[in-house]
Amino acid sequence: MNESNIRKYANLMKELDLTGLEITEDNCVVRLERSAPPSPAAVIPAAAVRTDEAKADGAGLTDVLSPMVGVFYAAPAEDAEPFVQVGDPVEKGSTLCIIEAMKLMNEIPAEENGTVAEICVRNGQVVDYGCVLMRIRR
User: Which residue has the higher pLDDT, 74 or 25?
Assistant: First the structure.
């Protein structure tokens, strides 16, 4: 199978919104795969990436959003105390939690001073990009 045929099939996959295609031609098998495009509901507005003001009934709260897809960890180790708990004061730059992505542990710092008002995810939970991890009261 030549490159132009492969490109033709790849364009067909895109046009039909397919995530996989297997072609058998002249005793040769070629399997093409691509990631599924994100659903419109999963798209996060650019303005919401860093922090987002909470609803009017939660005035003074700032959402801490996940900057990546990964696993949320509240503590540095399985048997260690969590970085923060509800009611704890936090300072700008202090570690709030860890998001593990591709075997890398990424510390998530506080972007402002405040008090932890709510932790929205549980330890070990898989989180998406833009997921609210916790809320900080200013």
Answer: 74
For residues 109 and 111, give the distance between their C-alpha atoms in angstroms, rounded to a whole number: 6
CB atoms within 10 A of CB 17: 9
Verdict on whether the full-model pTM lies above 0.90: no
The residue type found at 90 is V
Q: How far is CA 137 from CA 54, 87, 112, in A?
A: 10, 9, 10
CB neighbourhood size of 74 (10 A): 21
Parallel/antiparallel/unpaired status of strands 61-65 and 89-90: unpaired
Cβ 74 vs Cβ 64: under 8 Å: no
